[in-house]
Amino acid sequence: MPVANAVKDALGSQSMIRKMFEEGTLLKKEHGADKVFDFSLGNPDLDPPPAFFETLSKLSNDRTKGVHGYMPNGGFPEVREILASRVQKDQGVKIDGSHIIMSVGAAGGLNVVFKSILNEGDEVIVSKPYFMEYRPYTKNHGGNIVEVNSLPDFNLDINAIKARLSHKTAAVLINSPHNPTGKIYPRETINSLAAILKEHGQKSGRLPYLVCDEPYRELAYDGIEVPPILSAYSEAIVVYSYSKSLSLPGERIGFIAVGPDINDKKNLLDAFTYATRILGYVNAPAFMQRIVGELISGYGEVKVDLEVYKGRRDAFCKILDEAGIMYNKPEGAFYLFCQAPKGDDLAWVEHLKKYLILAVPGSGFGMPGYFRLAYCVDEKIIQSSRDSFLQAVKSF
After folding, report:
1. What 3-state DSSP class applies to 284?
2. Which of 43, 175, 241, 392 could form a Cys-Cys staple with 355, CB 3.0–4.6 A?
3. Domains recognised in the chain with CATH numbers
């Protein structure tokens, strides 16, 4: 029997990030890993903080009967209460553990949200460029992505979003700090977005959700604020992951949070819990739930060393400046989104491979003419890539 048509079509346009990563694996085999400058995949290379390993060791010795068994599909109640106290601080709202649903990372969380809120043909508005997996996440549950342009500095274009709101709009999906640009949407932008969504809801009778994907919340540089979402708009949903802040991408642990005033709150949270179960996750990983709960209750604020990423950003910017490559300086996350020389991102990324540099074309993020560099790699690799970048620009 053939593969399902929808999956077959998706395989033909599968993630450019993964494609470049796989090509990098082949180049490393051919030339040696130390000779290849792989900036394709946003895979954190920093070790988790020491407190993680201390907690891991402590909890791994727990022999309490049933400690690795099932719990409520929404997660351990005691962990959800602990996380609610943390979300209160970040988001400026008063909530308890019932407002938190543990998720299998942010990807799992977004799929749970879309399963819960989308009807067939509903639309989710995203601002270009955007993380390419948002499209299949939405399509998984009968929805369609609606793309709008961003402003030249990659801030949200509120008027462009307003123009695309319709009776089909179920949600606006944002990501801040942003992948692939590193942009942090300022408080005034979030407030303006909330205002147009409220206005649209009053006119249309359908109040869209504002879904914020926040795996990079702690990765903000130079004292720039990542503004709260839940206190800015009643119909907001925050999806969070510990993949970046604790360098745990493979452990797949995160959560979904809603504010106290969201409409039909009980039914929405029940839907998240139900979706978690029937999508096959059943529950977020039990051991990791207990670890993040213990970290927050026992250590308070725990995260990777942000100064390491900041140093890499600055080192990379210096090389790009020397090479004459234009970019907007990232305010957070660990990506640089740069203008491709001559505006041809596909040809440029292909050209970079001749110099053993791996980048991702902006076309994969819905924005041709740009390319993305992930600087979650050792700074020695960034510094060693200087001559290759200079030669690549000169010969293009």
Report:
1. coil
2. 392
3. 5-48+304-395 (3.90.1150.10), 63-299 (3.40.640.10)
